[in-house]
TrEMBL record:
One of its GO terms (molecular function) is metal ion binding. This is Probable alpha-L-glutamate ligase. In the C-terminal section; belongs to the RimK family. One of its GO terms (biological process) is SOS response. Keywords: ATP-binding, Ligase, Magnesium, Manganese, Metal-binding, Nucleotide-binding, Protein biosynthesis. It comes from the Bacteria.
């Protein structure tokens, strides 16, 4: 006769308080009060805000898992499965968002529903109601911590950051154009479950004050974004960087900060910055007085040479002067227009080609060689140039990374020339286009950018001493 299993042996014993984990939310340790008198489970949450479409709404919120402590702060997001009225033990009713996530206790895990509410006045950051308790759980009301104990110290280690789940983000793309790059950023972000909103930079306006700085748009305050991707056109650099500074003041992660964008757009300052960081570049000279024309050209070298407007973009305002006399004529013409310009050595061995290195998060993720159209020394794709994937050297890779770092840019297009004396940086672009390099390299650059954003907005571990 076969012995029947004893149901009592399969029972899980819970005390009135237990250590639990919510791995889907990036919460590896929480103390939860077990209350069979409550039907619905609840999690202490703040900054609760819905986002996404009406058909598939999501909610994001922050959790302070350690009672009585402001840190750590764990950002979370989840799909909204319901919204219901919940009556607390003191008789007050509140409409709460309901989410679904995995509960882990000891070595056992199962899905539960959670309501989000403010439990700041409660000793436990989580309430475990009877709907979340499985049939084979028995409650020992006189005991606590009958399951394996956890520790808040996990939040003071790198593990909480590395184990944080990929959560849905709310991202703003600052752009005035419906071009390939903007569309790809929206497409890739939404494919990853993020909400991506395109914001016309010039229609933003700011409430500048010490206590509650805000960015407004079309008559309403913009929501709190997890990240901002600036795509600021050269014609609105001043206003665009002011908007980015406002987001930085609020504390929003901006893929490229205002300081880096401003530096990259000022070609004179950009070259001075690269010189300060000992980054190779063509010999460059700048002067204001027309009396210094000959001396200016001598500083650069012999003809041919490049005369470049400081405000030039996409190859516009860049002239190749093949003789000294031609250079004098171009310089005189630019001065007659009261235009600011640089004079640079022409790197003959580059032969009308340059290398665009795409740097994301301090790494070169893609590179292409751009060749100018027939008879044009400029290799810009907007001017009819062509592109193909290229293998770059270690020196070129290191130069591109150093250049992006000098400008404090997380996302940059670094244009290099191959010269006999090594790679020379032509320009650092803070709003590099995606179409040319994605087409040439067949790489998902937009996806790599979102990988970097997700990494940057993960919760950072706090110093261990704060939790003791």
């Amino acid at each position: 006769m076969t012995d029947m299993p004893d149901p009592a042996q399969n029972l899980i014993r819970f005390g009135w308080e237990e250590w639990v984990a919510l791995p889907d939310l990036g919460l590896p340790a929480l103390r939860a009060k077990v209350d069979t008198g409550a039907r619905t489970s609840a999690l202490h949450a703040s900054d609760i805000e819905t986002f996404g479409s009406a058909q598939a709404p999501q909610v994001r919120f922050t959790v302070h898992p350690v009672p009585g402590r402001d840190h750590p702060v764990i950002p979370c997001s989840a799909k909204v499965v319901d919204r219901r009225m919940v009556t607390s033990s003191n008789g007050e009713s509140e409409s709460r968002y309901v989410i679904r996530c995995t509960l882990t206790v000891g070595g056992d895990s199962w899905p539960i529903e959670l309501t989000l509410t403010n439990r700041a006045s409660m000793a436990s950051r989580m309430l475990l109601g009877r709907e979340a308790l499985k049939d084979h759980i028995t409650i020992v009301a006189t005991d606590r911590f009958l399951q394996p104990e956890l520790s808040y110290d996990v939040y003071a280690s790198g593990r909480v950051r590395s184990a944080a789940p990929n959560r849905a983000l709310r991202v703003a793309v600052l752009s005035r154009e419906n071009n390939y790059s903007t569309r790809r950023l929206v497409q890739e972000g939404e494919a990853r479950g993020h909400t991506v909103e395109v914001i016309d930079t010039t229609r933003c306006y700011m409430a500048i004050n010490a206590m509650a700085p805000e960015v407004h748009y079309d008559g309403a305050r913009l929501p709190r974004y997890d990240a901002v991707i600036p795509r600021i056109g050269a014609s609105i650099t001043a206003y665009g960087t002011a908007v980015i500074r406002q987001f930085e003041t609020i504390g929003t992660f901006c893929v490229n900060g205002s300081e880096g964008i401003t530096a990259s757009r000022d070609k004179l300052y950009a070259h001075q910055l690269m010189a300060r960081h000992k980054i190779g570049m063509p010999n460059t000279a700048f002067a204001s007085s027309p009396k210094d024309t000959d001396s200016l050209m001598r500083l650069v070298g012999t003809a041919p040479m490049i005369v470049k407007l400081l405000e030039s973009t996409q190859g516009k305002g860049v002239v190749l002067a093949e003789t000294k006399k031609a250079a004098q004529s171009v310089i005189d013409a630019f001065r007659g227009l009261r235009a600011n310009f640089l004079v640079q050595d022409f790197v003959k061995e580059a032969a009308g080609e340059d290398i665009r290195c795409l740097v994301v998060g301090g790494k070169v993720v893609a590179a292409m060689k751009r060749t100018g159209a027939e008879g044009d020394f400029r290799s810009n794709l907007h001017r009819g140039g062509s592109a193909q994937v290229v293998r770059i050297s270690k020196a070129e890779r290191e130069t591109a990374v150093r250049a992006a770092r000098a400008f404090k840019l997380n996302f940059a297009g670094v244009d290099l020339l191959r010269s006999e004396s090594g790679p020379k940086v032509l320009e650092v672009n803070s709003s590099p286009g995606l179409e040319g390099i994605e087409t040439a390299t067949k790489k998902n650059i937009a996806g790599l950018l979102y990988d970097h954003i997700a990494e940057r907005v993960r919760p950072a571990p706090v110093r261990r001493g704060k939790l003791i």
